[in-house]
Every structure is written in structure tokens, then in C-alpha cells.
Amino acid sequence: MDTLEPEKLEWIRDLPSPRKKGTKKAMQARFDFAGTLIPPSEDLPTHLGLHHHGEEPERAGYSLQELFLLSRSQLIQQRSLALNTLACILTKVHKPAHTVSCIPTEIPAETHSLILQARAGEYQTILRGSVTSSLLDAGLLFLLRFALDDSIEGVMSAAVHALTALLVCAEDEECLDCTFSWFRGLASFPLLPSAQEEDEEDEGLNESMKETAMEKEERKSDYDVARQDVVKGLLKMKLLPRLRYVLEVVRPSPRVVEDVLHILTRVARHSSSSATQVLDCPRLMETVLSEFLPTSWKSPSSLSLLSAYGHPVANAMKLVRVLATSGRHACARLLNSLGVRERLSCLLSAEPNELLMDPNEALRITTEAYRLWAVAAGYGQACQLYIDLYPALVRTLQAVHSTLSASDSLLSLQLHRLSALLSLLTQVTHTAGCHQELQSGMVRAQGEECPPPPPVSWGHVAGLQPLLLGHLKGAVKCLDDPVQKDSVLTLIPAYLVYLQAYYHHLTRQTCFRPVETLQDLELLTSEVLLPLMCHSVVQGQIKNLRSSSVVCNVESSPLSPETTPNLPGLACPGWRDRPGLVVLSCPFPLLTGLGLLFETITEIHKGLSRKFAALVLSEPVIGYLHSCSHASPTLSHSGSWLLRHEHHVLYLLLRLAHRLVPIEPEVAKHASLYHQVALVLLPWLLPGSEYLAHELLSTVIFSKDFLSYCRSLPLKLGLKARGSRWRDLSVGVKRSLLTFWQRSSELVA
Fold first, then answer.
1. Cβ–Cβ < 8 Å for 438, 462
2. pLDDT computed for residue 570 by the predictor
3. pLDDT mean over 586-606
4. Where does this protein have compositionally biased stretches of type Basic and acidic residues (predicted)?
5. Which of 470, 469, 489 is nearest to 479 (CA)?
């Protein structure tokens, strides 16, 4: 003790004072255990455990490099703490920024405290570079994958939680669930990274060369694959068998089970091939279905709440639904080979309050069951189940009024459940409408192979139309009630889409009676549609067209959470706090339902066309179309799924204008505007919307009523003037445009 050792005595000195306020020098980012960024000037007490003997000992918190080091520690607590902290950081990174102006990279220290008082998610404006990209470049994916193999359950659970924070955005899932009952909301674009260069290179390859390219892809290392596509890299690193082991053998806590189901759902959304790998993984789906979607279970008790096993879990049903949306063959495997059909019957034959479950979970799982059934019915599958459960469906529909009048905390879940049920009835109506056509096709085929008609026929669905029409009339009246206004606005678009499906197929049935149908349509127009269209609540929504539009607000859109090219997302965080297509004040779902029904009605009863002229002549619609005619939307994962819905609204407005221009002089005054919008809409159309291009070319664009107002047709056809690129267009749209240009040249000549 007599020997003086100055180096060791340095450790017992007082800590240096933190960085002075006002400095503009960049410094290393440090986080607390909740994932919150700590300002450099913050002087936190040492008992919080955030100080250590690493670099910058005067600063509280841990840097990303130090967290990586801790995650490889031999101490279990340090490994778990580091992984949980990384999960918290990723969760906050994927939340939205709420600042209007962009904050410089090297900001004064005194502004940190104000920034950190706002909601988390402003890292992309405070920090230099992307946190997610930095973590991925540093090997976070491999770190988490190795931690999943840890024999200590706590470390494994922390790795699952961190992987969920990296892959899954809860608000993206909420937005997709909210738009499920919209027109064509059942399907969603795959969340694949952009690979335009690879697609162009593979476009001219023959089969043998494509096989060589596939072999080359298989020879890539895990790092190279993960650098291009995070989900594909995880699949290559055998993520699915490990998750199956966690569920089947480890049997973790309910929180870890939920995280695993979220990860599997995100993998299934990646692509149809990824969804197939989930289905093909040995014993994975069998474990999910047997443990989290059992056909029988006991009433929940205080002990059973500590384990998710042996009880139905709503997210397990959602995983099955997302897998079913990947294709009809995957859906058939789930229904027939894995016993999902029996589970649908078990869950939907009783009311939610009779399922011996928590009320919230019962509503959520029955909602997902209806959505899964709607997806299957869209493929023409599980239709016999409709006949078997018809009494239960009618019983649920008869209780709609009492559901809407309720004001408890379950109202939002009840509305989602009713919307999913209406989507199911819409899909069953579409399938039943094809029964007669397929049956007559089998008779004409005379021994040739022909798809069999579905078991549900028009007679099975026709009886529901008066009941649902009565619901719609009641919903329109409830718009005057401030308490029920928001609830009925959520349901009205689903009712309109159902009625469009009903009348669209009614004219093709042998029971079709033209005179009675025309009278019914006149009553529907005068008693329901016109009062709905002229209602002050609906007019107030229509005024939000431009503010809710994705097409018109590309440059002024709020800051989105940071995303990386190899892990795309929908940029939905913060959707409740900003204008957009998904919020309640957005008019697009209602306009889509009205436009679809208007188009079907005017096809059957052309004399009613003038009744709907007020929609295309309204000042908000005209202003919105003017803005669209000069817009240049960009294509990305965060916008394509919303642009698809907005394209439908534009198309339906143009179709209504096409019917009105020859017979309504006031509408004809705006013919050049409608024609210009049709021209700019054509190259915007996304894959899967080629039929819209065909309809536009067949009606609006080459209509003599519109061409007479447009003298400079070839000039307006230039895609470069609109900021579009030829390679960005789908094959179907390219073919349509080539035909378009050829015919326009002939017309001009």
C-alpha cells in the first residue's frame, strides 16, 4: 500500500463534468436501458447504472458498440440487458418523427431536452446516419440469430424481442387491418426489397440460364443474402426451424409466443415463396395450430394466464390469414390438410361472449376468423361452411343495432368484427354469383375438364340483401347522431361494396326480374344514396380529398420513420396524427363504395345517371382532379398499397364522368379535365390493375365525347413529361400504352 500507482487512482477521481451546453461538435450517441437517447449535456446520477469505465466515462448511457460488446458477455444478465436495450432502441427508431422542420445533424446541446420531450422516433433527425442501417452493417442480424440458439431462456427471449422490434411494425399491421374491408383490401403487395436491376437482367434469360441464376443465388453467403434482403437472409440462416423449436420445446412465456407469431406473420408478408417456406417447415404450423388454435380449451384461470399454450390466440389466426392471402393453394392446404376449416367452425358457431375467453381476445380472434374465411371465399373455398353456419351469421347480423348503440371499450373491436363479416358476405356473394355460369359451363363442356361450381348458389345469398339494405338505411340515419356518427362511417363503405357485388351478379341470374330491379334501384337511389351523398358529414369528408391524397401530397408528406432498402416497410407509424387515406376523416373508402355502386346502378338503369352528377361537379372533386392532373407521385413500398386505393377512386370518378358527359352539359364543360386525368392515371397504374388500363383505353381515353375537347392528344401521351419511366411500368400497362400510341397516331392522321 506504500507504493503510489497514479493510473489506478484515476478510477476513484470524481467524474469530469459533462459536455458544455451549446457545443456543436458531434459526439457518440448513448442510450439508456429504455432505448432513449441521452443528451450529451445531461448530468445523470451514477446510481442509475448508466456510467461505466469505457470511453467517455463522464457520459451516462451505452453506445451501440458497447451494447454489442455486452451482448457477447459471459454473464447472462449482461447479455439479456444488452439485447433488451437494442430492442428498445429499434422500437423507438421505427416510431414516427413529430417535428415539422428538419433538425441539423450537429445540433446545439440545449435543444436536445426539448426534442426528447416529444414522442420517440426522431432519431433520423438527431443522429447522423441511420441507426437501423448501422446496426445491420455491424452484424445485428447474426448477433440475434446466434442469441436465438442460446441455452438460457432469458437470453433467447430477449433475442426474440429484439428480432420483433427489427422486423415488425405494429402500426403497419394496424393500417393493413383497417383497410382489409375496403374494396380489394384483402390482398396486399409483397414486402420485397426493390430489385429493378436484377429483374431487368433476368427478363431476357431462358429457362436454363434462369436455373443457373438460381444456383448462383444459392451459393451466396448468408451475409450477401442478408445485405440485399433481411428476411431472405434470416430464412437462409434457418430461422424457421429455430422458431419451431422455441414454440414446441422451450414453450416460452406468452409475450415471447406473441413475438414469434408476429415474426412469422412478417415473414409470410415478405413474398409468396416465404409464406410457402413457413407452411413447409416441419411441424411449425402443426405446433401453432395445435397449441394456439385448439378445437377445445378450458375456461381461463389465474394460472392459465401465465401460459399461452392450450388457448386460442388471435395472432395465430392472423398468421393463418396472412398465409392464406399468399395464394389459393396455400389457403387450400390450410383448410384441408391442417384442419383450419374445423377451427373456423368452432370459433364462429358461437357468440364471442360464449367462447370462454377474455372478451378482447374473443373479439379479435373471431374478427381474424371472419377475415380468413373471406380470403378463402374469394378463392371459392370454404363455401360449404357458409351453409352450415348460416344461422350463426344471421344471428350476428340481427344484433348489429345493439352493437352500434354500445359505448363501451369494446366498440372498436366490434366494428372491426362487423366489417370483417361484411367482407365475408361480399366474397360469398361474388362466389355464389358465378355458380350458375360454372354449372352451365359444365353442361356445355360435355366431358371436358371444367371447374366445378361452388356449393353455394344464388339462392343461399339472396335472402341477406333486404337485411343488409335495412342496416344501411339505419346507418345513414345515424349520421345525425354525434355519438354514433364515427361508428357508422366505418361500416357504410363495407355495406356499399356488398350492395355493388349483389346487384352486379343479380343481372346474370335466371331469377333476374328487370322491372322490379329498376324500381328497387330507384328507391335505393332516392331513399339512401342521394341523402347519403348530400349529407353534411359526407360533404365534410369530401372536402378532405386533397389533404388525404397520396398523389397530391408527395412532397409535403410528414417525416417517415427510417427504413432500409433491404427491409422495406409501409411507413405507417403516426398515421393517426396526420392526414392520410387510413384516418377516419378520409373520404376515399366512402367514395370508392359510392363509385362502385354508382357504376353498377348506371349500367343497369341508365336513366339514373343524372342523379349522381353532383358528385363529379362538386368543387372539392374538381379541385382534387386539377391537383391530380399536375401531380407526379413516386412509387415505393410506403405508398404503393395506398396509391392502389386512390387509383380506384380516380377511375370510378372518370367512369361516372364518361357516362355523364354526353347527357349533362355542365359535366361536359369539364371533359378536358377528365380526359387529362385519365391520361396521367394510365402510367401510374400498378401491377394487378391492368384491367383498369384496359377500361380507360376502351372508354374515356378514346371516347369521341372527350377527344373533341382535346386537340393535343399525342403531346399529352409523353411519359417523360410526367416524370414516369418506361421500365417502372408493368408488362400489361406497357402493352396497353403501345396499343394506345398506335391508335392515337391513326386518329390524329
1. no
2. 79
3. 94
4. 208-221
5. 489
